[in-house]
Amino acid sequence: MEADDSQQRDVPEATGEPGAWRASRLSLVSLAFGVLSWGALPAFVVGLPAAILFGVLAVREIRGSGGRLYGVGFVIGGVLLAAGVPLGIALSGP
Would you say 12 and 65 are in contact if contact means Cβ atoms under 8 Å apart? Predict the structure, then answer.
């Protein structure tokens, strides 16, 4: 039994062609700053604000893309990683 054309969804392949899905570069930058914030204290001081800033910009970009971009999960991961550093420092005590 063949599927009806009206039931098939038009899902573009991730190939880089126009109309294809792709990850937001800003979301990947947010994730990178989240990972880098675990490296050293100066990286943490820059990493958390940068992860949040690029995360907010990425979410705005993704929402305005009409479904062509993805990466909100990358943003969440980056911000949580970056926020985990001060939480770990606070919980470790003196």
Answer: no
